[in-house]
């Protein structure tokens, strides 16, 4: 079974703090993703990575950065947390597309509910 | 840029009723389509997916979806719902660029409540 784990289920931080959200996958997936989930807005892609030290911006990267030093680990960083970053953060991973598959299923972690006061 | 529209944000049905959740996407090229489900307190998990071939795809728990290219639609169906189907349902699309490294574009979700 694919397992995507996230370091915390719940996190409370103060405005201006630097926040690290960690994600680890155990299936040797090349791709890793960070989304945020908000009621009525669905999931929105923040950043993704298809290889170690590689990163690409998603739809809403402002206020976030990421780090991928090892294949299995993908970190989301809020340099200076703000109240509008209060949200559920979901990490996902997948294999890179192959010769015969244009896309592969993403597997999601349990999420981290971040509250910024 | 691709976008996904889910027609109903909240749906309430009685057990044994038939279900159809609408999903339309806006991308003219090759697409990969997904329905994900999130049961209360649980991970987001894949219900079914369409990559190519038969446009009628079957997923887990009796769900199916039909890809209609001319209508840019990928509606989710189930002939008889159960109380345990209460969940949030998300339609998602990825433009089939061949790289497969980019993320999914999700709809805003449909909150389905099944009344016993």
List keywords for this structure.
heterodimer; A: mainly beta; 7-stranded mixed sheet; about 50% strand; B: about 120 residues; mainly beta; 6-stranded mixed sheet; 4-stranded antiparallel sheet; globular
Structure description:
The complex is a heterodimer of chains A (117) and B (116). Chain A has 117 residues and is an all-beta fold. Chain A contains no helices and 11 strands. Chain A has strands at residues 4-6, 10-13, 19-25, 31-38, 42-49, 56-57, 65-70, 73-78, 87-94, 107-108, 112-116. Chain A starts with a strand and ends with a strand. The relative contact order of chain A is 0.33. With 116 residues, chain B is mostly beta strands. In chain B, 0% of the residues lie in helices and 52% in strands. Chain B contains no helices and 12 strands. Chain B has strands spanning 4-6, 10-14, 19-21, 23-25, 31-38, 44-50, 56-58, 64-68, 73-78, 87-95, 105-106, 110-115. In chain B, strands 2, 5, 6, 10, 11 and 12 form a 6-stranded mixed sheet that branches. A 4-stranded antiparallel sheet of chain B has the order 3-9-8-7, with no helix packed on it. Chain B has a two-stranded antiparallel ribbon with strand order 1-4. Chain B starts with a strand and ends with a strand. The chains are: A mainly beta (117), B mainly beta (116). Chains A and B meet through strand 4, strand 5 and strand 9 of A and strand 5, strand 6, strand 10 and strand 11 of B.
């Amino acid at each position: 079974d694919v397992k995507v784990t996230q370091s915390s289920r719940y996190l409370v931080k103060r405005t201006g703090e630097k926040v690290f959200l960690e994600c680890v996958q155990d299936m040797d997936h090349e791709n890793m993703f960070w989304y945020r989930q908000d009621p009525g807005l669905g999931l929105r892609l923040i950043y993704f990575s298809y290889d170690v030290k590689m990163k690409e911006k998603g739809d809403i990267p402002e206020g976030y950065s990421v780090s991928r030093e090892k294949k299995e680990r993908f970190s989301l960083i809020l340099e200076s947390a703000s109240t509008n970053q209060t949200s559920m953060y979901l990490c996902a991973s997948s294999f890179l597309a192959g010769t015969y598959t244009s896309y592969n299923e993403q597997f999601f972690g349990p999420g981290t509910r971040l509250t910024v006061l | 840029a691709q976008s996904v529209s889910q027609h109903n944000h909240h749906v309430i049905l009685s057990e044994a009723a038939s279900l159809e959740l609408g999903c339309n996407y806006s991308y003219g090229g090759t697409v990969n389509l997904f329905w994900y489900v999130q049961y209360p307190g649980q991970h987001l998990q894949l219900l079914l997916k369409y990559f190519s071939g038969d446009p009628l795809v079957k997923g887990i728990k009796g769900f199916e979806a039909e890809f209609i290219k001319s209508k840019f639609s990928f509606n989710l169906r189930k002939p008889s719902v159960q109380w345990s189907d209460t969940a949030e349902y998300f339609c998602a699309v990825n433009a089939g660029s061949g790289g497969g490294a980019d993320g999914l574009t999700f709809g805003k979700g449909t909150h389905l409540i099944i009344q016993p």
